[in-house]
Amino acid sequence: MAKISDYYGSLVFNDQVMQDRLPKATYKVLSETVKDGKPLNLEVANVVAHAMKEWAIELGATHYTHWFQPLTGITSEKHDSFINPQPNGRALLSFSGKELIQGEPDASSFPSGGLRATFEARGYTAWDPTSFAFIKDEVLCIPTAFVSYTGEALDKKTPLLRSMDAIGREAKRVLALFGKQPVQVSTTVGPEQEYFLIKEEDYQERLDLILTGRTLFGADPCKGQELEEHYFGAIRPTVNRFMQELDDELWKLGIPAKTKHNEVAPSQHELAPIFLTTNAAVDANLLMMELMRKLASHHGLVCLQHEKPFEGINGNGKHNNWSISADGVNLLDPGTTPFENLQFLVFLTAVIKAVDEYQGLLRMSVASAGNDHRLGANEAPPAIISIFLGDELEAIVRAIIDATPYASDGAKTMDLGSPVLPTFIKDNTDRNRTSPFAFTGNKFEFRMSGGEVNLSDANMVLNTIVAKALADFADTLEESADFETDAKAYMKQVLTDHQRIIFNGNNYDEAWIAEAARRGLLNLKSTPEALPQYITPESVELFERFGVLSKIEAESRYEVKLEHYSKKINIEGLVTARMARARFIPAIIEYSSVVAGSIAAKKAVAPDIDTSAEEDLLTKLNSGLATITKGADDLQAALADAAAVEDSLKAARAYLTKVLPAMNAVRAAVDEMEIIVGHDYWPVPTYNHILFYT
Length: 694
Ligand code: ADP
Ligand code: MG
Description:
Number of helices: 23
CATH topology of the largest domain: Creatine Kinase, Chain A, domain 2
CATH class of the largest domain: Alpha Beta
Shape: globular
Distance between the termini: 28 Å
Mean pLDDT: 92
Low-confidence stretches: none
Structural class: alpha+beta
Bound molecules: adenosine-5'-diphosphate, magnesium ion
């Protein structure tokens, strides 16, 4: 068997390959581009493109593509072959520097939120040399940004890169005050991807899963996740084979897949790679999601990444572990004596300030139709943003606010009560699994993002809001004559002003909702409530000041998100009505006629026989039939009403307040029938069946 170390990264045009294959001078220029963001000239690009093409062809590639992330949230690619026909009837394989650094896909078929109306339809893709090119299915994929003819970002990567620049710049200003001049300051992300695997044959029977990614019907299974036996349980052999193949393919792509395990819900799993620089981490996550979906089919499985594939059990989240690093040193590492670590406290304070000031924007960044099913239910954090710091950091923050001395309890050792077990040092941050934004030792874990999303949005917002808080610090302290004293005074003020965002308790507790309201924290429960945060004057000012999004870009993204929300629910509504009429109503009628037939047959033989049980059943079926039919009619009326609303925010609200409840009514009626209709008559696989396969 091949050793992992031999094939790890074998499909990536990474730093090592560049060093091996590029002339020294070219490699040097390219490295400077990658490290310092210096522009790349065409001459250098030509040399790089040639080396890349030779490398790709050796590995069996025939095509190349500019791989980009339009606002749909998924990735896009258009394959061009390297073929360049010659007059003699043969073909050369060519790939120029221009083809490497710039592409021109037609932008008109991608959502632009109105940008298209104002600007030319043409769009450009531009190479992001900080994320390595790779080979996927015989295609050389070049990670690119996607912008309009006039330079407006039409994708998720461009603003993310801009936000990384912004936080790098502001963090350097702060570090300079500590006498440090790092070359590169960047944020890092390690996403934990949750997903379900179900059997392909079940999936094929469910139009709802096929078209919407989630089940729109389904009574609770007799057994859910209450036995808590699935989490970290032994992995099914089929699933294990899937995971092995996935790991192998990810490792070839240089994606450091690390931890895999069963999750809380039946048939749910998780994969976490080791963290990378943010843009590379987002690219890797998107590739990983794509591979998961593709490779599942090799094992007769389907991978579901939707935020809520099944009601009543956990859905899929994607914890976004986030930190800032300066030349590889983690700036959120408190060290052993955090109270004495002024630099750490300054960065910590900046994050606290940022999250409190822009809680609405952060909440907005994870809003989607799918995620609305998670946030606020008892599995994911609520829609209210708060920060968990853990006991030690909370005590430190308290001491700074109260200007009282802080005495650390020191590292606590734990005695496990048995001499054969080692004693170990207790982690200072215990795990609060209910917090939406938790400090976990040397990073923050933002837990609100959904399983299906592109993490660019959340990280673009996180980077920008922390850049702002760092800029505020630098603005205040750059002129200080007594830096240490002034920095402490500044922190005391900021922490006092923003302490309301810190909450170490149970976020699932009802009492927290009231307490949060008392503290004045936002509780934006749904996507239509959260999205307007994108374009508040404060948000627009923030994005413009840090060069992350122009006003028009922010507005267009807001429009795209609103439309996307409405379209998703519209599709769900149509599928609900269609399945009700085409699947469930006929099944109930069929079963009713069997029951009616049984009553008639019995009566024919023995007129006095008691058929009350069947009659009861028939009455229930009949009334269910009526409720479903009426529900489907109401739903179609609600869909028509919502579709007629012109204003996009009002339309989204109509989908939330009219269409979703109408869908739920149909579902409730159908789910009631599922329990009483004979198994052989039920037209789709049920939760019991789908979730507990062998
Ligand atoms: P958990 O206990 O939540 O599983 P882990 O320590 O295993 O926490 O890390 C979870 C994720 O956090 C992994 O993807 C890991 O690489 C990532 N991570 C660790 N350190 C950092 C960091 N400095 N920046 C970003 N992500 C990080
Ligand atoms: Mg985690």
